[in-house]
Amino acid sequence: MSDFLPEDLIQEILFKLPIKSLVRCTSLCRTWNSLIKSPTFISKHLQRTISSTDHQSLFLLRLYSKEREEQYSLRHDNQDFNEHMQLHFPFKSFKSYFHVIGSCNGLICLAKVIQRFTVSFIFWNPLIQKYVNIEPTILGHLYSFVGFGYDSRANDYKLIRMVNFQKSKFLIENFPKMELYSLNEGSWRSIPQTAPLRYDTDQHFSSAFLNGVVHWIANRADQHEGIHNVVLGFDMSDEIFLEIALPSCLDNVRPSCLSLLVYKESSISVCQASFLSSVQFHIWVMKEYGVVESWTKLVLTTGAQGEGIPRALGIRKEELLMEKKSGWIVSGDLESQQVRDLRIWGEPFHTFIGSYLESLVLLDKSNAIYGYNSNGLVE
């Protein structure tokens, strides 16, 4: 058929196919294989998906079962959070466990941890069954900032990591070691420091990627101002750090009591649980990204104090997704204040929810492993 149709028309036809069908098409002929695996086609496919008004809005859900099995699925962004498909998780080890650092453009970033040490990272596209295994050059304790995101200027996926080795994190001589992994370069490199960084966090793997910047809730130590909370950001394109001031009432709140979430794919929000006669979430939304004066407070009352304090997982539309102390996932409407049980359960404190976009990312990477080994495992 390719002998009779212009390449532009062939591309338009292929763009309309589901991801798994496109992968199958790579085995039909050499011409299609070269076309679909080309960086240009993959990039165009991604941009068309992002700009399309009729593509499916999906969420990645990660659960951890009582049998210590990792369960991944894609969910529809509808009222009942219905399942779209199960994802085969090939990475298993009896001595390690995994943290989801984030998801961006169909690529999931995982950290493999053994005895509180991060031994490797993984970039994984489950729809095309390809992954890249990344060994860090710095073997550090869990005390570190880790963030994953996309550099749109270079069309590159990057992993930033800051590691401290001492408990006295704010000593002058105790500067963090910083390294950046680039998927395009296939290697780590050090990030130079123009000034000493005095940051600490209790949320080692918790971050929010938005507008080309990965964000964390952090303590900032200053000789004159003391220690206070800020939103620390790292721009993936310019490779520089930035700060966003929080509402003054959050200055001295323990970072582990705060959850930083993406809000409507356009800005950030910070959730703080409050419990007196009932459990409430105080949700500070930055209505205009980067404008400190635009922080706006929303309140969600979730129930009686005796039910325990839920953990904020994410925001979709006008709903806050939460994990109850028992492991059940519920959704709270920020307008009606109604809380609904989504009838989804996972081992407490292991659940991850984040937006997901189907893509062909990694299909063109020579350092990516296609399929899984004979045991379906990565040791």
TrEMBL record:
Describe the location of the F-box domain by residue ranges: 1-49
List the Gene3D superfamilies: 1.20.1280.50
Q: For this UniProt entry, which residues form the secretion signal? A: none
Q: Which PROSITE patterns match?
A: FBOX
Q: Which PANTHER family match?
A: BNACNNG10540D PROTEIN (PTHR31672), F-BOX PROTEIN CPR30-LIKE (PTHR31672:SF13)
Q: What is this protein called?
A: F-box domain-containing protein
What organism does the record attribute this protein to?
Salix dunnii
